[in-house]
């Protein structure tokens, strides 16, 4: 069975001691790991939470985004250099958490657009940044998995085809692809075909409903998803990512204006869905 994780962004974007009871309950449900957002996170808090996870037997993955001031595809070389510095800092905090994976749309700045389609220079600039930080992540033992996002949040990589094109340029064994069923539900023609296409580079996987609520409560085709994962022999993380308004500042930043599901409904019923699908398709 693949390892199952839960992203604690359903409660908070802040890494703090306040997450410890939540982590204990996730472990009690049966989760193998927790995923944390690394933003302007305090080093001491990362170590405290990372140590707690280690003590209770909960593994860790992490996610991050970049601002326009740290954009890897900026035409300004100084801004691209800032993206490298920021990603290395994020990787250091991920290491403090004992993270195995750093995922997210860090190939470019989040929700930052140029009012045109991506150009070749932007793919090349992104690839240069990702290759350099891929080396840094490898030294720390952290796999880097850039994520394709929907058209309303990103323009460089919306589909697995675009993400594959970018990663071929990166050409680094420690920089692989991330698949998220929420974004793929909007951008891919067929989930199974998209999974099969990206399979040679697939390093991390988010189980997310079409509305970011409880997996299985919406219209994402999880039978097709798990059948595809079985077909390609995917053996990595299956991590639930759902959002709420529990952390208003974070919710406002990503355009979450209502609660799709309560966090513990996502956690308990989402875990049940993954277990059932895993058993059904032999994952």
From TrEMBL:
Domain Xylose isomerase-like TIM barrel: from-to ranges: 23-248
Listed Gene3D superfamilies: Divalent-metal-dependent TIM barrel enzymes
One Pfam family in the UniProt entry: AP_endonuc_2
Recorded coiled-coil stretches: none
Top-level taxon of origin: Bacteria
UniProt-listed InterPro entries: IolE/XylAMocC-like (IPR050312), Xyl_isomerase-like_sf (IPR036237), Xyl_isomerase-like_TIM-brl (IPR013022)
Protein's name in the database: D-psicose/D-tagatose/L-ribulose 3-epimerase
Organism: Algoriphagus alkaliphilus
């Amino acid at each position: 069975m693949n390892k199952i994780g839960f992203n604690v962004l359903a409660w908070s974007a802040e890494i703090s001691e306040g997450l410890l009871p939540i982590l204990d309950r996730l472990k009690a449900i049966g989760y193998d790991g927790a995923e944390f957002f690394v933003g302007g996170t305090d080093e001491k808090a990362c170590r405290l939470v990372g140590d707690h996870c280690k003590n209770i037997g909960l593994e860790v993955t992490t996610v991050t985004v970049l601002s326009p001031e740290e954009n890897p595809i900026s035409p300004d070389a100084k801004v691209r250099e800032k993206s490298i510095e920021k990603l290395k800092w994020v990787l250091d905090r991920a290491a403090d958490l004992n993270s195995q994976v750093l995922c997210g749309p860090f190939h470019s700045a989040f929700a930052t657009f140029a009012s045109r389609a991506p150009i070749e220079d932007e793919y090349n600039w992104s690839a240069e940044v990702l290759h350099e930080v891929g080396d840094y992540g490898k030294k720390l033992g952290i796999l880097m998995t850039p994520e394709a996002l929907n058209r309303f949040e990103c323009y460089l990589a919306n589909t697995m085809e675009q993400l594959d094109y970018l990663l071929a340029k990166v050409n680094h064994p420690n920089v692989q692809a991330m698949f998220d069923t929420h974004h793929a539900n909007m951008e891919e023609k067929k989930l199974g075909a998209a999974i099969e296409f990206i399979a040679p580079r697939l390093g991390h996987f988010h189980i997310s409903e079409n509305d970011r609520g409880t997996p299985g409560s919406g219209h994402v085709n999880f039978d097709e998803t798990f059948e595809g994962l079985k077909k390609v022999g995917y053996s990595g993380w299956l991590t639930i990512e759902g959002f709420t308004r529990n952390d208003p500042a974070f919710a406002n930043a990503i355009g979450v204006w209502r609660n799709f599901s309560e966090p513990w409904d996502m956690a308990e019923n989402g875990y049940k869905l993954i277990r059932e699908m895993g058993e059904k398709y032999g994952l």
